[in-house]
Design a protein that fits this description.
- The chain is 40% helix and 10% strand.
- It has 284 residues and is α/β, with parallel strands linked by helices.
- The chain has one domain: P-loop containing nucleotide triphosphate hydrolases (Rossmann fold).
- A 4-stranded parallel β-sheet has the order 4-3-5-6, sandwiched between helices. Strands 1-2 form a two-stranded antiparallel ribbon.
- The longest helix is centred in the last third of the chain and has 14 residues.
- The chain binds 3'-phosphate-adenosine-5'-phosphate sulfate.
- 3'-phosphate-adenosine-5'-phosphate sulfate binds next to helix 2, helix 5 and helix 11.
């Protein structure tokens, strides 16, 4: 149960992401021009972004988000179930993925399909995932945060290295069909981010519709929405105390990293992310 699949040198949770599906996504899946693809490294705020996009699509009407599980509204392409849903789905399709760029369907790169890539401070994504997997029967649990930091910095975690993920997908950042967002900006100015997404999608919403998107995608509403808070996950996969909606804050890593861990992380970050322009990452 706690096994990894290793595909092209990257680890994936074996019971959610079969090797065969990864092969299909890479070599067979055809991206369509009217697809909208949400891409993230795990724990970057993926489900928050899905909720916002769904609400923009319904002009703030919460009926859809309150009646259909989030993973059926925007299936995960690399999961066996999500892949099967997507290949049968009529367009325009909304889909989600944590895949690094080099494992994604090659058809994306000659398509006009829109992509939203959401990035979060890797320290916060790390802490979020550390607490998440401790309550989950999906992948091997680390014995301490220190161990998990070591695995994370080496890329020995599901979906591989944060650094490679970001470097890979950010190479598309100048493309017109590629929008880069940051969790930190979403937190500081959620309405500004919602408007940015509307502009990118060519959607015009009235002020009351925008307010409704803001309201129903808030941390509190999502926490209480059983279609979005992962309470519908298969019971055998989760342990007591499991939650997707943990804190929803920025810089929680400061409550958990020791000074030595923070310094070790900074060192690797500076080395691996060298070459990006100053100000590229809002938390640096
Ligand atoms: S996953 O499992 O990789 O798809 O998780 P993901 O959705 O990417 O990230 C989970 C973290 O996002 C936080 N979250 C939110 N923050 C603010 N507002 C809203 N509405 C919201 N929804 C989800 C969630 O709490 C997880 O972060 P942590 O730091 O663990 O709280």
């Amino acid at each position: 149960m706690l096994d990894y699949t290793c595909f092209e040198g990257i680890l994936f949770p074996a019971n959610l992401v079969p090797k065969e599906t990864l092969q299909n996504v890479c070599n067979k899946f055809v991206v369509k021009e009217d697809d909208l693809i949400i891409l993230t490294y795990p724990k970057s705020g993926t489900n928050w972004l899905i909720e916002i996009v769904c609400l923009i699509q319904t002009k703030g009407d919460p009926k859809w988000i309150q009646s259909v599980p989030i993973w059926d509204r925007s299936p995960w392409i690399e999961t066996g179930k999500g892949y099967d849903q997507l290949i049968k789905m009529e367009g325009p399709r909304l889909m989600t993925s944590h895949l690094p760029m080099h494992l994604f369907s090659k058809s994306l790169f000659s398509s006009k399909a829109k992509v939203i890539y959401l990035i979060r401070n890797p320290r916060d994504a790390l802490v979020s995932r550390y607490f998440f997997i401790r309550k989950l029967n999906i992948v091997k649990k680390p014995d301490s945060l220190g161990t998990y930091i070591e695995w994370f910095l080496k890329g020995n975690v599901a979906y591989g290295s944060w650094f490679e993920h970001i470097r890979g997908w950010l190479s598309m950042r100048e493309c017109d069909n590629f929008l880069v967002l940051y969790y930190e900006d979403m937190k500081k100015d959620t309405m500004g981010t919602i408007k940015k997404i509307c502009d990118f999608l060519g959607k015009k919403l009235e002020p009351n519709e925008l307010n409704s998107v803001l309201k129903y995608s808030s941390f509190q509403f999502m926490k209480e929405n059983n279609m979005s808070n992962y309470s519908l996950m298969e019971k055998e996969l989760i342990l007591t105390g499991f939650t997707l909606m943990r804190k929803g804050t920025i810089e929680d890593w400061k409550n958990h990293f020791t000074v030595a861990q923070a310094e070790a992380f900074d060192k690797v970050f500076q080395k691996k992310m060298a070459g990006f322009p100053p100000g590229m990452f809002p938390w640096e």
